[in-house]
Amino acid sequence: MDKLIIRGGNRLSGTIPISGAKNAALTLIPCALLTEEAVTLRNLPRLADIDGFQHLMNQFGVTTAIQGTRPEDFGRTMRLEATRITSSVAPYDLVRKMRASILVLGPMLARAGEATVSMPGGCAIGNRPIDLHLKAIEAFGAQIELTQGYVKAIAPDGGLPGGDFDFPVVSVGATENALMTAVLANGTSRLFNAAREPEIVDLCNLLVAMGAEIEGIGTSDLTIHGVKRLNGATYAVMPDRIEAGSYACAAAITGGAVRLEGAKANDMQATIHALRSIGVEVGEDAKGVDIATPGALSPVDLTTAPYPGLATDMQAQLMSLLCKADGASVLKETIFENRFMHVPELARMGADISTEGRTAIVKGPSSLTGAEVMATDLRASMSLIIAALAAEGETTVRRIYHLDRGYERLEEKLQLVGADIERVDD
Ligand code: EPZ
Question: Is 123 one of the annotated active-site residues of the chain?
């Protein structure tokens, strides 16, 4: 099992290339099920979850080919061809390793008329129910059965009629499954209170490129006019706004100046606003985002919310940064019930953080010291790396497979800007 060793204190400076967005790629890949023609996705990040999804697609009889496998390649191209579907079952042993597999339910149902997917189960940050995925698909006319830990969705003969669904809670994944179901329904479907994350817009853009008819893209009210068939397309995945925000926090906590090449400022305005309130200088241009940290950091109060609010996926990273602010900050996590797993690990590095339910109070500035810490979930792990970069001494982070799920070549990218970080065999 690998671990990362970080010796803190270096001021980061230089350029970090931002990869394609994991959370966009994981919903674009299953779109290949919606057509017999080839779907080619460019700018895919080199991540375990992407490889896992490719394997899952192969299970269904989808042929896949990857270009750009040389070590020096950033961004890969994957060609998927679902000419024939040989199975509509997503088995437990694959789904349990990657929750996002639930995103094959909608497109498989739309294409094959039925889909059987293992229930994904919970994870470190919450029990992650899928009731809204199922309610939306039922609203479009599907029959849903739950048996032996599997969800089975069946379309009526003649295909799904389509329908309306009003989301009681904003859900990214349920919105994605609903969209990928409605595009091939017989009639028109409407979604209300749908998620508006940039990853949803990326999904809509690919579906439209494949011939789907979607109105209201980027808003919370979406109208989808079902079409008989979709064609293939070639599409480049959007840049990862959470990766970019994470490296912005890494640069800022070291008092550094870093360019996030390829980052799309427009996708991360809430994060940029938070960073500027903390005292970080953020420059925006068409090709990237520039981070500079001239002076002291100020405490701020932050609350996570569905887009365009502050991303829950940025909460842990900003908490680490706020450990160095001059004063107390209050962070409220409104999306997931257990997303403070990084707090006890940060405390072991000298952070002064108290939590009460979904509220955390961060008192700074703390003089962080290196420690042996353990990664628990993807973004919590990144918050430990960020703290370690500013800590006195050496930090060892274990269980970094969590990190490898969401951050392509993490240590290489940080080494590019002067971090003293190495990956070693545990
Ligand atoms: C996506 O998860 C992302 N994952 C998450 O990123 C991200 O944190 C989350 O959206 C919120 O932005 C991917 O895109 C692969 P939700 P998702 O459905 O779709 C509740 C990361 O670190 N809910 O928007 O699972 C749910 O419990 C990961 O990259 C239901 O109640 O999130 C949560 O409280 C972590 N019923 C809230 O909605 C449902 O059927 C938002 O969840 C579905 C969700």
Answer: yes
Enumerate residues lining ligand 1, CB below 6 A: 23, 26, 100, 126, 128-133, 169, 171-174, 312-313, 335-336, 378-379, 406
Q: What is the pLDDT of residue 379?
A: 95
Is a pLDDT exceeding 80 seen at residue 426?
no
Distance from the alpha carbon of residue 424 to the mean position of ligand 1, in angstroms: 32
Q: Which protein residue has the closest C-alpha to ligand 1 atom 35?
A: 313
Amino acid at 5: I
Tell me which residue has its CA closest to atom 7 in ligand 1. Answer: 313
pLDDT at 391: 98
Token pair belonging to 14 = 């230089």
- Which residue, judged by its Cα, is nearest atom 10 of ligand 1? 172
Specify the DSSP class assigned to residue 358.
Answer: T
Q: Are 417 and 251 in contact (CB under 8 A)?
A: yes
210, 230 contact by CB (below 8 A): yes
**pLDDT tens per residue across span 364-393:** 999 999 999 988 889 999 999 999 999 999
**What is the C-alpha separation between 346 and 140, in angstroms, rounded?**
46
**CA neighbor of 268 nearest in space, from 253, 251, 288:** 288
Closest by CA to 399, choosing from 381, 419, 387, is 381
What's the CA gap between 304 and 144, in Å, rounded?
32
pLDDT in tens, 284-306: 999 999 999 989 999 999 999 99
What is the token pair recorded at 202? Answer: 């990326």
Among candidate residues 304, 300, 319, 315, the one with its CA nearest the CA of residue 387: 319
3-class DSSP assignment, residue 382:
helix
Q: pTM higher than 0.85 for the full model?
A: yes
Q: State the angle between helix axes of 241-253 and 315-322 in degrees (0 to 180), rounded to the nearest 10.
A: 10
Q: At what angle do helices 241-253 and 269-278 cross, to 10 degrees?
A: 10
Q: Which amino acid is at 71?
A: P
pLDDT tens figures, 66-116: 987 676 777 899 999 999 999 999 999 989 888 899 999 999 999 999 999
Q: What is the mean pLDDT of the chain?
A: 96
Which is catalytic among the residues 123, 204, 249, 323? 123
176, 207 contact by CB (below 8 A): no
